[in-house]
Amino acid sequence: MDTKPPSSPHVLIFPLPMQGHVNSMLKLTELLLTAGLHITFLISAKDHDRLFRYTTVHGHLNSYSGFRFHVIHGLYEGPVDTGDKLTILFDSLSKVTTPLLRNMLLDSPVACLIADGIMAFPLDAAKGTGVPVFFFRTVSACAFWAYFCIPDLVTSGDIPFQGTDMDKQIVNVKGMEGFLRQRDLPSFFRSDVNNVTLQQIANVTRRTQESHALILNTFDELEGPILSEIRKYCPNIYTIGPLHAHLKSTSSNNLFEEDKTCIGWLDQQSPKSVLYVSFGSITTLTREQLIEFWHGLVNSGKRFLWVIREDLLLNHGGDNKVPSEVKDVTRERGYIVGWVPQQEVLAHPAISAFLTHNGWNSTLESIVEGVPMVSWPFFADQQINSRFVEAVWKLGLDMKDTCDKTIIAKMIKEVMDVKIEDFTKSANRMAKLARECVSKGGSSYRNLDRLIKDIKEMSVRSTDIQVN
Ligand code: UDX
Predict the structure, then answer these.
(1) Angle CA(22)–CA(208)–CA(254) in degrees, nearest 5?
(2) For residue 252, which phi and psi values (nearest 5 degrees)?
(3) Catalytic member of 10, 38, 48, 116
(4) Do both 223 and 270 map to the same domain?
(5) Is position 200 within any domain?
(6) Is 247 exposed, middle or buried (0-12, 13-18, 19+ CB in 10 A)?
(7) CB-ligand 1 contact for 340 (6 Å cutoff)
(8) Is the peptide bond before 5 cis (omega within 30 degrees of 0)?
(9) Closest listed residue to residue 298, CA positions, set 329, 324, 273
């Protein structure tokens, strides 16, 4: 029987429709396209429209012959800044996308499905189709491992939290003994043990063992000890991060309109003189918190570039505009914008430090550029990321669970003045490791090669099955 020449393997990629998730999975998409794979990227109608409006991603990815978006309509498209709203999003995704995915897997030759590992239903949609499912988790290995340990922490009585001492040591997360406190566990752990979001995250993370393999946007030199613990349960792991560092272009995948005037303002600043402030795409602040941060920034005496998204301020009683005094008095020393090209900003010579919420993409971007951090985690994985930044990687200071102008000013001065040498040294060392691992022969470079080879081999096998 004549066998068809193996066409390019076709991969479905499906992220949770949120900025940080879409961002990193689009970068994975481009890496797989450059290796000659064909990709169908499933995206919500809202994100598809925003990418089209604010970025050049469509033109950029459509320049690859094997790329196409598949737009999903009818999903929940409201805010997701709390666990309850995340649950609404997950339910909507499961209802709308499970049948859609199953039909796509049955109707066309698909080498594999790379699904965002925060959603379990792609495993169910693929059951019986013979299509392998890779789980891609957009969080750190340390966050993934904490989520994986939830059932053990319930058994050991560490969850729900005992008493009110948030500095109580947690000794039942292997690899984190000696520095992990109650307050450093992901924010969902602070809720009731029957909380739906906590249960969903525990369940989906354990179901990673049903997936064909786990792909993580991290690197061995950064999270080696934690990865060793995970491999005991999920042996097939591809650590291929920092994903954005593989790509030479810093084309943004932003769902918000970038204000590039900030680059012109940075060009006028002295080297290493500016604090960059951004809390990602989901974090929200009360007016009181915004004013505390503003006083802390002004009292630090430092020049600052501050991203205040249009939806950053919690909308209490309709007034979610930034107070006018914040905008006016800031002018001579600070620069406030709605959204920036963050990778470009972090690479700018004027930037000295990053006041961040420690979303995983922002954390990796800061590591690659060797920028020390002041961490103010908001929710989810950010709490444990900020603890690793301070206690393990020595890349900055962790300001979790407080929002006080005196502490804010003090920590900014400590990172940018008092301890600047120590932090610069450790940040430059980690940045060197991050760049080496994505260079030819580096750990993430080799793991990405292995992932592409494994997908191509799957495709040949599935073609053989169809032909014979
Ligand atoms: C979400 C979760 O909050 C985070 O904890 C998880 O790790 C990933 O999913 P998000 O809050 O958006 O992510 O933060 P982050 O992961 O840092 O992603 C934000 C992305 O937006 C980064 O790639 C950053 O470069 C980009 N960004 C942010 C901009 O391009 N411009 C900005 O002004 C701010």
Answers:
(1) 5
(2) -85, 150
(3) 116
(4) no
(5) yes
(6) middle
(7) yes
(8) no
(9) 329
What span, in angstroms and rounded, lies between the C-alpha atoms of 436 and 434? Answer: 6
Q: Does ligand 1 have an atom closer than 6 angstroms to the CB of 253?
A: no
Question: Which strand ranges, in their side-by-side order, compose the sheet holding 67-72?
Answer: 67-72, 38-44, 10-14, 112-116, 133-137, 213-216, 237-239
Is residue 36 situated within a structural domain? Answer: yes
Q: Output the 3-class SS for 203-240.
A: HHHHHHHHCCEEEECCCHHHHHHHHHHHHCCCCCEEEC
How many angstroms does the Cα of residue 382 sit away from the middle of ligand 1? Answer: 11
38-61: per-residue pLDDT in tens?
A: 999 999 999 999 988 888 888 888
Percent of the chain having pLDDT more than 90?
79
Indicate whether 295 belongs to any domain. yes
Regarding whether 230 and 184 lie in a shared domain, the answer is yes
Q: How many angstroms does the Cα of residue 9 sit away from the middle of ligand 1?
A: 30
Verify that 411 and 294 share a domain, yes or no: yes
- Give the domain CATH number at 451: 3.40.50.2000
Our answer on whether the CB atom of 217 is closer than 6 Å to any ligand 1 atom is: no
pLDDT digits (tens, 9 = 90+) for 234-261: 999 999 999 999 987 656 777 788 999 9
What is the C-alpha to C-alpha distance for residues 196 and 4, in angstroms, rounded to an integer? 48
The whole-angstrom separation of Cα 3 and Cα 463 is 9
Same domain assignment for residues 81 and 230: yes
Question: How many structural domains comprise the chain?
Answer: 2
Pair (342, 446) in one structural domain: no
Q: Which domain holds residue 190?
A: 10-251+440-467
Return mean pLDDT, the chain: 92
Write down the residue that tokens 């906590």 correspond to.
Answer: 198
| 324 and 445 fall within a common domain | no
Same domain (yes/no): 412, 460: no
Look up 348 and say whether it is catalytic.
Answer: no
2 lies in some domain: no
